[in-house]
Amino acid sequence: MTRLRQELDPDRLLRSGLRPARGRLAVAVVAFIVKDSPLWILPIVTATVIDALVEQRDPSSLVAPAGLAVVAILANVLANAVYVRAYSYAVRQLGARLREALATRLQELSIGYHARSSAAVAQTKVVRDVENIELMLQQSFGPVLSAFTILIGAGIATALRVPEFLPVFALTVPLATGLILWLRRRTGPSNEAFRRSVEQMSSRVNEMSSLLEVTRAHGLEAVSVRRVVDTSNDVQRAGMSLDRLNGRFGALSWSSYQLLTLGCLFGAALVSMSGLIPISVGDVVLLSSYFSLLTGSISSAFQIAPIVTKGIESRRSIVEVLLEPDVERNGGKREVSAARGAIDFVGVDFDYGSGRVIDGLDLSIAPGETVAFVGPSGSGKSTLVNLALGFLRPVDGRVLIDGADIESIDMRTARRFISVVPQESVLFRGSIRENVAYGIEDVSDELLTDALLNANADFVFDLPDGWDTPVGDRGAQLSGGQRQRLAIARALIRDPAILILDEATAALDPETQAEVQDAIDRLTADRTTLVVAHRLSTVRRADRIVVLEAGSIVESGSHDELAAAGGTYARLLAQQ
Ligand SMILES: Nc1ncnc2c1ncn2[C@@H]1O[C@H](COP(=O)(O)OP(=O)(O)O)[C@@H](O)[C@H]1O
Ligand SMILES: [Mg+2]
Domain ABC transmembrane type-1, which positions (predicted)? Predict the structure, then answer.
């Protein structure tokens, strides 16, 4: 448990993300300090030159300051190049690590979590939040480090030349702290509101894209645009209130530091005039330049405050996912190395949080058996299938695979022996071959050919590029029947012990369905198969038909038995 905690600790993650780059980070810091040194070295040069003038010194006294200035400026050019390379490496590497951690986490989170949260939100986190963190680190490193080096450099030079003025420098620190506290308290909630509104908008835009055809077909463009516009108006409102706060902070920090600078100038002048402390003209110039330098650098460090607060919020957004507890726990459980294909439901209850969906269900499925589930929509067929896959966990009772409670086995290994053909198969951008072989390395041409033929997907061989033909996003360039046949080939090539078809042919026209059904029959031959089907014609040949109603089994038997029994199945049969 503590080990898990540690792995999930976001700060640890951020730090471990930077760990391999620690060397570069150190190089970046040193290079930056060198690069920035002219800022506080040049005022010393100026003050020395002024004092040399005022005191009418020998021209040779100018050689040292001139040399110092030239060296500092040349070093700047070199150090800058080193700094940019080293720091960019460290930040980009952290970004890549964060994205990897997020993707890994999203894969560990339960299907239930993904059902609750929008895919677009996950996408926003992986893309935008990581970018915000990179931006924060990139933009803040320079100004913040610069403010510190100037504070230290100016402090040292002042200590050497006019130590009496050192306490004045110390004033900048509490002032900066106060301002930062104000900022944290005021803009934290606004940043969060803004980020949530952007997430909302992302999920609406995503929804708009996936509903495009339905929207057009029903002439609902305006409604659809409205839904996006509503959220984008929220983004506008949240953004404006954030901008106002950031603006107020900018003004507040600028004017307080300006006041401090002026105070220092007049103070130094008064001290010099009164003769209280022996302080030269050069010293007054030095102090005043240091103060405006310091003020300027603190102000510009504060100018990136909006980027920093946004980055902090993005970090929180990422942490939200990294700490989400609804994960599928597989670690340390027994790995499955072979499967016969027996599935048992023992007194299984399930609900999604609003009433029983599966109610005390008992069912034993023998290896190699084909069981069809029929019943009205919402009777719990898909839920049952998801319980068998371990996507959902029973509230009560147990689900066993080959006699082992799925709670006790590593489902990631068990699922290697299971294939699923869903109602709407998703193909990714890539060739047909890549899509069919998805996740299996080194698929031979023979195996691929067999799978395609057995899936009745011979249309592939008529394509000009055969199985190297690319398919678009979501398989847009293929018909529904073609897509489904590729999905069946994908299921088949894995030679699974258990096959699950959840309304795999429901979206197809009867003719295509008959063809796909033909492929399915071949597929079910010697493996355990769970078929969920609407059309009863597709379940006739199953070894057993289970009729579900409101999460309970009301009938079970072969087609002939049930047809003769005159129960629910017979009634459904008569309706079709
Ligand atoms: N993700 C979910 N969250 C809440 N309720 C759900 C969810 N999925 C399904 N349900 C509910 O559970 C019941 C069974 O759904 P489901 O198993 O999908 O039925 P079927 O596949 O038989 O049509 C339905 O009442 C449905 O509204
Ligand atoms: Mg369903």
Answer: 41-310
One-letter identity of residue 505 = T
* pLDDT of amino acid 5: 41
Residue listed under structure tokens 């471990």: 16
Mean pLDDT (the chain, rounded): 86
Residues of the chain with pLDDT under 70: 1-20, 473-476, 507
- For CA atoms 382, 388, 393, 398, the dihedral sign is positive
Residue of the CA atom closest to atom 1 of ligand 1: 115
pLDDT recorded at residue 214: 85
The two structure tokens encoding residue 520: 């399915």
Q: How far is the CA of 358 from the centre of ligand 1 (A)?
A: 10
Q: How far is the CA of 454 from the centre of ligand 1 (A)?
A: 32
Domains along the sequence of the chain with CATH: 2-322 (1.20.1560.10), 343-575 (3.40.50.300)
The structure tokens listed for 32 are 């930056």
Q: CA nearest 498: which of 547, 521, 531? A: 531
Amino acid type, 116 = R
pLDDT at 14: 64
SS3 of residue 477 by DSSP? coil
Dist CA 142 CA 29 (whole Å): 9
Q: What is the pTM of this model?
A: 0.74
Cβ atoms 75, 91 nearer than 8 A: no
